[in-house]
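User: Show me a protein chain along with its predicted structure.
Assistant: Here is one chain, sequence first, then structure tokens.
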Amino acid sequence: MNKDYVTVSEINAYLNDKLKSDLNLRNLYVRGEISNYKTYPSGHSYFTLKDKDSEISAVMFGGYKSNLRFEPKDGMKVIINGKIEMYEVRGNLQLYAFNIIEDGIGELYVAYQQLKKKLEKEGLFDENHKKEIPKYPEKIGVVTAKTGAAVKDIITTIKRRYPYCEVLVFSTLVQGDRAAEQIVEQIRHAQNYNLDTLIVGRGGGSIEDLWPFNEEIVAREIYNCETPIISAVGHEIDYTISDFVADKRAATPTAAAELAVPQSSEIKFKIEQYKTMITNSLMDKLNQNKYVLEQISKKQILKNPETMYNIKQMHLDGLIGRFDAVSKKILMDNKNKLFELENSMVLKNPEFIIKNKKEEYLRNVGKLEVLNPLLTLKRGYTITKVNDKVISSVKDLHKEDELEVVFDDGSVKTRVI
């Protein structure tokens, strides 16, 4: 170093060498609370570790962070295993983190994960088991601390949104050793009041404060409860076992109240809409019927109903007239036919008809005699057959054909040579 002056870089390098040479600072555990936590695209996370009196800058490089099983957040109390060095560029004392352990909740976190895995495997988180939250409840129960901010937020929100609903509070401890047992007792007790919905929860807090809602007895009671349950535990980022088992999970107690009841102003608006629609529909129907009635009232038949009777009477008279005319015509036709029969030659002189029919018969017999082939045989002619088929031409004969020659008084057989 120059005896007259030193540079800033030289000072920072010198101090950093001193820090690196101190074995106590090469591997130590530091307890504090995380704030200003931010992860950059490089994968490195930068934050401040503080307690009630002091703070120190800290960094965790991506290679170390990949081994973490959780994402650090602002406000988280942790124990950091790391080393102390100086960031020479800025001259800042800095904690370089190798590992981050949640302070005081390591065992609780493990227990939480184990129970969550167990209940999920048993099917307590299945959606097909979850019950619908009634849209228009008449009575809602709240299982929480009677003096906490959560119960005030829930009651205020319900009364503001849906003042027609009754709210019953079932007071219980929400943190501490006996809280889980009291929560179970109050859930069972609430089922005696014919509730439409039950809200179970509390305001925010540490994982230790929220732990009763991670207890197995509370989870199973929520699962077995016949009344639909909305779980509202902690802040929006907090998730407990109760949230997974409940029929509905709300991010906050206020959000639970909003899920439990509708907005009365919206209902009134819809009612007005329906009222307008029904009124318009009825008016349209009334106007249509009024028009139809007016058209009917203008019809002549209503003004002079005798007209309808007269028209029907005229139609009946016409039918009677046609029936009378047809009947008379049928009688006349039959009378004429009877007269013709009575005066016909068949009835007056039946022998004449028989004589005519006999002469016609003899004429027809004579015609048939002329055509009779047997008479031809009597005149000396013959009929030649081959296999009972009459031969009418020499062309139809073949050598060795056996012929049958038929005469008037018999037949002979011969062969074609």
